[in-house]
Amino acid sequence: MLAAACPGLAQANTEPKPITAPQPGDSFVHLSGPKVGQPVVAEDLQIGAPKLAYPIDPASGEVRRARASQVVLTRLDPALMSDETREVAWNGIVAYSAICTHNGCPVTGMRNPHTLLCPCHESEFDIADKGKVVHGPAQRRLANLPLKTTGDAIMVAGPFSGIIGAQTK
Ligand code: FES
After folding, report:
1. HEC profile of 51-109
2. d(CA 129, CA 38)
3. Nearest C-alpha to atom 3 of ligand 1 is from which residue?
4. What are its E.C. numbers (predicted)?
């Protein structure tokens, strides 16, 4: 009845919600900095210089703009990577959730070339070892986002490896 009186409401209720979680085959766009909105390419990523990115559906061009989809991409020496990390990296590039598992701050810093640092309370995560916590207060590793190769593109290979941020389930 209400929908009949308000056609716009009926339409709003039936429209599919956009998928905000990263999907296999997604690529990435810069979330900040001078290249904001542009595709992230391998040359943008240097050791010790993490970049924040959003996944993007390459077919529709829709950016998956949700806090829980924010990703930190960086490069590290493959020789430092655990076997498990090497399996989910591409060409020395790794991707992790950018949301700290302690209290949800963006993880934007680096303590050293293989340790991401959360600036809020200084939790540290070893990105050469699948995001393992090496310094608290965080108790849970950062979720890894597996990558794959297709030509020169950096692409998502599968879902996050764990719970995002400070959520408990
Ligand atoms: S929110 Fe990251 S250490 Fe507290």
Report:
1. EEEEEECCCCCCECCCHHHCEEEEECCHHHCCHHHHHHCECCEEEEECECCCCCCECCE
2. 29
3. 121
4. 1.10.2.2
Pocket of ligand 1 (CB under 6 A): 100, 102-105, 118, 120-121, 123, 137-138
Give the CA diameter of the chain: 64
Q: Is residue 161 part of a domain?
A: no
* Number of domains the chain contains: 1
pLDDT digits (tens, 9 = 90+) for 112-144: 989 999 999 999 999 999 999 999 899 999 999
CA separation for the pair 149, 74 (Å, rounded): 15
Mean pLDDT across 68-95: 95
- CATH code of 65's domain: 2.102.10.10
- From the DSSP assignment, how many helices (H) and strands (E) are in the chain? 3, 10
How confident is the model at residue 3, as a pLDDT? 44
* 76 located within any domain: yes
